[in-house]
């Protein structure tokens, strides 16, 4: 298991414009303290106990006809009938609130939720990003792994946490719920069948490899290769439970023998 402590303070300004456009400006100070089985802070400087950065970011978002569920302090999106597009630029500035690093980030993402009767529902997200400049792994893109038996929609479920780090990456999350599928022969159960595809491409610059590939670290980079997971499963079990069967297809060889090519994961999904 890997453990890391994060202390974060932020200030956000959000303004919603017409026709689905919105802008959010954020100033954030983050302090990471690696606690167990991760490269310690003093690997990046003698006597260093924490890794601190101060970031300023701007996010532009377009979601035409998006609907929300709002309360006094919170707002949750109910989705849009059209693709949602987001673009974010982040700049880290050294010398502010103990920040020591100077880098820039760009991130672009498109997501959509498409009803395709009688062929069910498609949900996808396509994303890409890059970090310009050298920085410790905590400020790069750490591919989201999952070491639990609970299925994580936003992670690679046959990947261990902190296995891959990148400063250039692109990915795809795709899920197609096809309705009854093979369970048409058992209509009273109301089971739903689906399949998933998750892919990731990434690379790490020589400068960031030199900074982060040190004794005691187990970080890897895909170096332009593909990480691919395929899955299927059963949803709407008693209207609550979901079971996923996940196969890691690529890369074919893993550096750690404990990493499995196949996993079964459970989760809760409330269907109405």
TrEMBL record:
UniProt name for this protein: DUF5686 family protein
A Pfam family recorded for this sequence: DUF5686
Species of the source: Niabella ginsengisoli
Record lineage: Bacteria, Pseudomonadati, Bacteroidota, Chitinophagia, Chitinophagales
Matches recorded under InterPro entries: DUF5686
């Amino acid at each position: 298991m890997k453990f890391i402590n994060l202390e974060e303070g932020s200030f956000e300004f959000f303004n919603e414009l017409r026709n689905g456009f919105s802008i959010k400006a954020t100033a954030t100070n983050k302090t990471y303290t690696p606690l167990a089985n991760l490269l310690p802070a003093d690997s990046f400087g003698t006597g260093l106990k924490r890794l601190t950065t101060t970031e300023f970011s701007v996010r532009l978002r377009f979601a035409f006809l998006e609907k929300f569920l709002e309360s006094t302090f919170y707002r949750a999106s109910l989705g849009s009938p059209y693709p949602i597009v987001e673009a974010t630029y982040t700049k880290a500035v050294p010398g502010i609130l103990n920040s020591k690093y100077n880098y820039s980030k760009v991130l672009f993402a498109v997501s959509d939720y498409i009803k395709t009767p009688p062929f069910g529902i498609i949900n996808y997200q396509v994303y890409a990003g890059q970090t310009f400049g050298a920085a410790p792994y905590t400020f790069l893109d750490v591919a989201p792994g999952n070491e639990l038996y609970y299925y994580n929609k936003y992670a690679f479920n046959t990947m261990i946490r902190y296995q891959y780090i990148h400063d250039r990456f692109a990915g795809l999350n795709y899920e197609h719920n096809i309705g009854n599928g093979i369970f048409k022969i058992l209509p009273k159960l109301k089971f739903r069948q689906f399949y998933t595809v998750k892919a990731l491409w990434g690379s790490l610059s020589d400068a960031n490899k030199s900074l982060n590939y040190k004794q005691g670290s187990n970080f890897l980079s895909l170096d332009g290769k593909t990480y691919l997971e395929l899955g299927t499963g059963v949803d709407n079990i008693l209207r609550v439970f979901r079971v996923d069967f996940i196969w890691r297809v690529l890369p074919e060889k893993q550096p750690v023998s404990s990493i499995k090519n196949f996993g079964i994961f459970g989760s809760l999904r409330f269907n109405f």
